[in-house]
Amino acid sequence: FSATFVQPMTGDLGVxxxxxxxxxxxxxxxxxxxxxxxxxxxxxxAGLRSGTRASIKRAAREGVQVGRADATDxxxxxxxxxxxxxxxxxxxxxxxxxxxxxEALAPxxxxxxxxxxxxxxxxxxxxxxxxxxxxxxxxxGMRRDPETRKIGAAALLRWRTMLWARANGYDxxxxxxxxxxxxxALRAGHSGLAARVDGRTYFKASFGGEAFHRPEAVxxxxxxxxxxxxxxxxxxxxxxxxxxxxxxxxGSRHR
Length: 255
What we know:
Layout: E1 3-6, H1 15-21, E2 25-26, E3 35-40, H2 50-61, E4 65-68, H3 74-88, H4 95-105, E5 111-118, E6 121-131, E7 134-142, H5 146-151, H6 153-167, E8 172-177, H7 182-187, H8 199-205, E9 210-213, E10 218-221, H9 223-234, H10 236-250
Parallel strand pairs: 7-8
Antiparallel strand pairs: 1-10, 2-10, 3-8, 3-9, 4-5, 5-6, 6-7
């Protein structure tokens, strides 16, 4: 029994076609986001919106500190991820999952976790992976109390992450998944954007960057897995289970 899902990296437009010719099929599992926003960190100020600039400055004035997290901080990070997951009604990445990621990727410099704190209290965290000159946001969490939102901790966290990426040789920061329908809305310009996209997409877009569709995802399933998987997906209840599994694996609701 085996199942392989492949979401090619941005720019690898021919990978899906080659895999389709080798027996893969198009995937609707939604294991990875199919659209995103990438910010060129060579010019991080270029697209930064005035409201987000104000939030960044406010958080700094309020004493928010942003630093890289290490293995000892993972329980704090997991707690923040859980708060956000509960707020948005999806399954959070567990502490064990984070520890596995850290063990596998951190020694080679391919995992970066940034933590925003004030007076020793964790406020927000971003978990990112680095590959091919791009630092990609994978998981994010924040305290859901009004004060954390008011002081702009998430904006400062994201901004300091982008500056760190520029200083450490990355070309871009991929801000994670957005709904595929939002790509055209973002490309149409910022005027009236708040009415055309959801709040999380609007926040990501406030850092500038370019919205894009990822290359087509493909899958290769052994015959027993494929038959069972297709049967489950055909029923409404099974479809919900598949979508729930995809959200858990991505740590996001975006498809």
